[in-house]
Write a structure and sequence with these properties.
- The protein has 253 residues and is of the alpha/beta class.
- It has a domain of 174 residues: Rossmann fold.
- It has seven helices and ten strands.
- The protein has an eight-stranded mixed β-sheet with strand order 5-6-2-7-1-8-9-10, sandwiched between helices. A two-stranded antiparallel ribbon has the order 3-4.
- The longest helix has 25 residues.
- The chain starts with a strand and ends with a helix.
- 42% of the residues are buried.
Length: 253
């Protein structure tokens, strides 16, 4: 069973960097000494095993799954059970079973945070997650393009209708800033994150830049101290910690 603070990373559409945000937030929280799990619920479009450079499968104990650990994060993904990058061809009821399976049949132990990498949109898995894991809160990921933010609003509205609190918005690919220059280039426009946060009555938690991949990095999707994104994700993790400390203090009172 899941314990700790559960955060669903959602988006209205694919290609906005939702999985990258989920993975790097999980790793950044772990770097701050938190016990973190990452559940890849993007059943059709799983990418976490590749992003985390995991090439082993989970083991079982007494009929339960032992999650794979990477970068200090406990991880489960449909990708661990698929051979040769075969596609997953399932209908809705099977998807719901995997949401329940990954949350209840994995030996997670005590957790501070559980990050859910959700599929884009408002389909079956999002519906099942809202029912199976009602305590989860959500972060909505968008790009700065205003059309993308309008699509992302649908995911936020779905969360609100399911009585799931929205922690805030992460605007990904906000700008590009060359290493040797002070200028910022807004390749995908401006204002999408602010527009989305305003429409949903929440705040922008982070505006993450586009950054060149460091050559020969063992895990290029996970940002290390040589990158500015390492520090952006560190700040995002700190913000999340402060938010949950305040929320939990209110509950205790």
């Amino acid at each position: 069973m899941l314990s700790g603070n559960v955060i669903a990373i959602t988006s209205g559409k694919g290609g906005v960097g939702k999985s990258t945000v989920a993975a790097n937030l999980a790793v950044s929280l772990a770097r701050q000494g938190k016990r973190v799990a990452l559940i890849d619920l993007d059943i059709y479009g799983f990418s976490i095993p590749k992003m985390m450079e995991i090439d082993i499968s989970p083991k079982t104990f007494n009929g339960k799954i032992i999650p794979v650990e990477s970068h200090g994060v406990k991880i489960i993904s449909m990708g661990f059970f698929i051979k040769n990058n075969d596609p997953v061809v399932w209908r809705g009821p099977m998807l719901g079973k995997m949401v329940e399976h990954f949350s209840k049949d994995v030996i997670w132990g005590e957790l501070d945070y559980c990050i859910l990498d959700m599929p884009p949109g408002t389909g079956d898995i999002a519906l099942d997650m809202h029912h199976t894991i009602p305590q989860s809160k959500e972060i909505i990921v968008t790009t700065p393009h205003q059309t993308a933010s309008i699509v992302a609003e649908r995911a936020g509205t779905m969360a609100q209708k399911a009585n799931h609190e929205i922690l805030g918005v992460v605007e990904n690919m906000s700008y590009f800033q060359p290493i040797d220059r002070s200028e910022k280039y807004y390749i995908f426009g401006k204002g999408g994150g602010d527009l989305l946060a305003d429409r949903l009555g929440t705040e922008v938690l982070a505006k993450l830049p586009i950054e060149e991949v460091i050559e020969n990095s063992p895990t290029p999707s996970i940002y290390d101290e040589k990158t500015s994104l390492f520090h952006h994700y560190k700040e995002l993790a700190t913000t999340i910690n402060l938010k949950f400390n305040a929320l939990n203090a209110v509950i205790r009172d």
